Amino acid sequence: MNITEKFLEKNIYSRPGTKLKAVEKIVIHWVANPGTSAMSNRNYFNNLRGRYASAHYVIDINGSIIQCIPTTEVAYHAGNSEWNNSSVGIECCHPDWTGQFSKATMDSLIELCSYLCQTYKLDPLKNIYRHYDVTKKDCPKFYVENPEEFKKIKARVKDQMKSDGEINLKINGKLRKVKGFIKDGINYVKINNYDIPIRDVGESLGFQVSWESSTKTVIFDDK
Ligand SMILES: [Zn+2]
Question: What is the pTM of this model?
């Protein structure tokens, strides 16, 4: 997951600097502006005058994530002050007016929601909402029109949370789970707070190292 912090300048329209009461929910949005980038949407929030809008995160069509507001502060995304005071808002860019997210956007959304659910002890099946669920606004459009697709997002977040924090390692045919994580396609193990690419560990121990993508398993075999 690749998050770039580009915090908005404090201003009354998009970053009031009010302390968030708690993070109890996550609200998902579409930017409703096909083909625009996360950065252009971030800059739009930064330059707003005369109306109120913002979100904590914007996810680009290419999957990169821009954080506009710290999750300790209120963003104006839910159209409801009670929700704004107790939720994190995520805006997703989209290629066209159907509002369906690209695969890269979706993958980042799953990772980001998983990270937030773990950090704030949220239940992905209960605490992730569409903007529509708050105010009946047609947002995020594709997932309002296709509620089953939104259920799939929540289920994927739950799956992702299960797999976060450990990786599958098979040594000479025997599977075990080890403390670690996957970042940018590389499997790392955690050893005494050091993050070490598991390939380096295997190779330095003299194993032949391979990767089985169907089961997301690192394989160590005797040479
Ligand atoms: Zn919205």
Answer: 0.79
